[in-house]
Write a structure and sequence with these properties.
Layout lengths: L3 E5 L4 H12 L3 E5 L15 E2 L6 H11 L3 E4 L6 H6 L1 H22 L3 E7 L22 H20 L2 E7 L1 E3 L17 H10 L5 E4 L11 E2 L1 E3 H18 L2 E6 L5 E2 H12 L5 E4 L14 H7 L8 H15 L3
Parallel strand pairs: 1-2, 1-4, 2-3, 4-5, 5-6, 6-11, 7-10, 8-13
Antiparallel strand pairs: 9-12
């Protein structure tokens, strides 16, 4: 029988790519999104229920109508700076919103949740690469809002039999290689789309926040993982939850770090144009290096990043940008 997945926040960047991956694998895909930060036209593989995860009556009605074997939960705010300025919004939407969703699931007897978590829960790394046993010491409300949810999922697993997997991903990047969906944030804060824009438009300089980090070239190093690789990991983790339940945590990254200066060179190479850059000071709390170990995901899910070569990531992001805004 065909399985059904309900994706909260499925009109957003990673959520929409996951919707496509589940649909390709033969699942019925239902999206639930309030469209406060998502895009209606990114929902292309099944019905859209336009509501907030905190609206218990509407969420319960959707769960009862479609009877999903799995809920994949993306609905969240995800700007670190905004979380520092307005922590109430983050704890209210991310943490309390997830509690409301979980209680709706309990009400209708839905017992499997795949949670979009973050490497921001680790804070400043004590060792590299970062594995799942690394201490979690977030340094901003966004990271805390996600880490608290992970603890809730553990407790709900023990008390109520909830099966869950928390996927802590590193720097999501790139776009659908087929060009159907892509990355659209307002405002845009991710390095790759900002660099691409600076390569296309001289009036959009890219700011390098710090060149005095203790790294080989002085700029911060991050682990960029293609959004299609993330989508495949969600599919594998969802199938694992349906098959055997349990409470799980997985890092999703490549194990390869790319510095900001290396990223600039890669955009220059792929876009065949020099990004316009300027220099700024380090941002408070920015770790010098964030690189994941994905050994656990490989061992338990059979997952490896297959589309995350940095030039390919940039190529897919560039093609999406140019299809939306011809240069």
């Amino acid at each position: 029988m065909t399985k059904t997945v309900l994706i909260t926040g499925g009109a957003g960047y990673v959520g929409s790519h996951c919707g496509k991956a589940f649909a390709r694998a033969g699942w019925n895909v239902v999206t639930l999104d309030n469209l406060s930060r998502g895009n209606r036209d990114a929902v292309r593989w099944g019905p859209l229920i336009e509501c907030d995860i905190r609206n218990s009556a509407e969420v319960c009605a959707a769960l009862e109508k479609y009877g999903p074997e799995l809920v994949v939960h993306f609905a969240a705010f995800a700007y670190v700076g905004e979380s520092v300025a307005d922590p109430a919004a983050y704890y209210g939407n991310n943490t309390a919103g997830t509690l409301a969703l979980l209680d709706s699931m309990r009400t209708v007897g839905c017992h499997r949740l795949l949670f979009s978590s973050t490497c921001s829960s680790y804070g400043i790394p004590l060792r590299l690469p970062i594995d799942e046993a690394h201490p979690q010491t977030p340094i901003n409300p966004y990271g805390w809002s996600k880490m608290i949810i992970e603890r809730i999922l553990e407790d709900y697993g023990r008390a109520y039999g909830l099966a869950s997997a928390s996927l802590r991903y590193f720097n999501a990047a790139g776009c659908d290689p087929e060009g159907e969906i892509g990355e659209r944030h307002e405002p845009e804060t991710h390095a790759i789309p900002l660099l691409i824009e600076s390569a296309r438009r001289a009036d959009r300089p890219f700011t390098i926040f710090g060149t005095d980090f203790p790294t080989p070239d002085g700029s911060a190093i991050r682990d960029y993982v293609h959004v299609n690789d993330l989508a495949q990991a969600h599919l594998l983790a969802g199938e694992m939850l349906v098959a055997r339940g349990g409470t799980h945590v997985f890092n999703l990254g490549t194990g390869i770090g790319t510095s900001v200066l290396e990223l600039i060179e890669a955009v220059k190479r792929v876009a065949k144009n020099d990004p316009v850059v300027c220099h700024g000071l380090r941002r408070q709390g920015d770790p010098p290096v964030l690189v994941a170990s994905f050994a656990k995901a490989e061992l338990e899910l059979g997952w490896r990043p297959r589309h995350s070569q940095i030039d390919f990531i940039i190529e897919t992001a560039l093609n999406w940008r140019d299809s939306m805004i011809p240069h």
